[in-house]
Amino acid sequence: MTDEIARLVRASRDRTVAATDQQVVALTTAWVEAWDALAPEFDAALAALLADTDGTIPASRVAKDRRITQALARARATLDDLAARTQVTVTADLAAAVLDAVDAHLASLQAQLPPEAPGVVLGTLDPDALDAIVARTTGRIEAASMALPAEVAALMRAELVRGITVGDNPNVVARQIMTRTEGAFNGGLVRATRIARTEMLDAHRAADQRAAQANRSLISARVWVATLDSRTCGSCLAQHGSEWPVDTFGPEDHVQGRCVFIDRTRTWAELGFTGIEDDDQDLTAERDEWWDNLTPGSQDAVLGKTRADLLRDGQITWADLSTRVENPDWRASHVLTPIRDLPGQG
Ligand SMILES: [Zn+2]
User: Fold this and answer.
1) Which residues pair with 221 in a beta bridge?
2) Rounded CA gap, 116 and 105, in Å?
3) How far apart are CA 283 and CA 230, in angstroms?
4) How far is the CA of 279 from the centre of ligand 1 (A)?
């Protein structure tokens, strides 16, 4: 295993992230334009409603207001369009991400085999297997997108339909309501963005996992590789160099995580090539060396002072710092262990 292979695998993941970033830009533009089109209607509806009184408007009256109801109906239709657009945008790049993952995977295995290795044939994936990954992901994107309009519209309605105390400055009141309503509307963008980020990377990882399974006879372990820099969290640093079975999906880092699995091939002797020396990198030692070269201040910045102290004092190990958590609306992920859950801290 070499830095060269880590670069190759990361480059593939980075291409998928770059495609996702472009999707996020496209979705953000669509959402901003949509709100710009909706806002005047809400503005007018609120102005008319608030002009009627300087007292209190009960929620029941807001709920029955014809203009407010119409504006909400139009927002719902707009959200339906945006959800459809989210689906098309994210789905469009899936096949490319899947192919890229498989290509990178095979290249990473090829790069570890001795150049003089005759007779080692890498297992490739047939088009049906790739299509199945794309189809499964497309189904999840569809389900998540379809749920979005109703939920966002309900949140917008909740912001609008409540008792209003108008007082002597209706414009200020109207602006506050508009800001909250826009916030609820943009919650839909946050969800769409999350769909893109989660599903694109997960399709990439699923393809990578299938490529590993197709080559299980060659692979001794999937190795978790983090990026050793100050932006990397303690959980990912803790996982650096950890070994996982061939069938593992992952690495299950967190949202915006930058870790990759690199599949380590069996030793050349195990593969039947004798007389060739293996030059395995010790990733854990690499991480420890990187850590030891940081100043205590930089170490504190990475882990927080309490955790850094415990690690420096030998009261905890790196493994204690990473905890797997289930997420109800996302896949499981490994995150930095809360201090109270560390050994000796309960
Ligand atoms: Zn991390």
Assistant:
1) 264
2) 20
3) 17
4) 28
pLDDT in tens, 196-206: 998 999 999 99
Q: State the distance between the two ends of the chain, measured CA to CA, in whole angstroms.
A: 39
What percentage of residues in the chain have a pLDDT greater than 90? 76
| Among candidate residues 214, 236, 255, the one where a domain is terminated | 214
Question: Looking at the structure, do residues 240 and 166 belong to the same domain, yes or no?
Answer: no
Quick: pLDDT tens for 173-190. Answer: 999 999 999 999 999 999
Determine the residue type at 125.
L
- CA 261 to centroid of ligand 1, rounded, Å: 14
Query: What is the Å distance from ligand 1's center to 216 Cα?
Result: 27
Ligand 1 centre to CA of 236 (Å) is 4
Residue 183 covered by a domain: yes
Burial of residue 312, with CB atoms counted within 10 A of its CB: 0-12 exposed, 13-18 middle, 19 or more buried: middle
Please check whether residue 346 lies inside any domain of the structure: no
Q: How far is the CA of 79 from the centre of ligand 1 (A)?
A: 33
Largest Cα–Cα distance in the chain? 91
Residues 231 and 315 in one domain: yes
The parent domain of residue 10 ranges over 3-214
What pTM, to 2 d.p., does this model score? 0.86
Q: pLDDT category, 271, cuts 50, 70, 90?
A: confident
Q: 225 lies in a domain? A: yes
Residues whose CB falls within 8 Å of the CB of residue 209, separated by 6 or more in sequence, listed in order: 247, 248, 249, 250
The string over 258-286, giving b where at least 16 C-beta atoms fall within 10 Å of a residue's C-beta and e elsewhere, is bbbbbbbbeebeebebeeeeeeebebeee
CA distance 240 to 226: 5
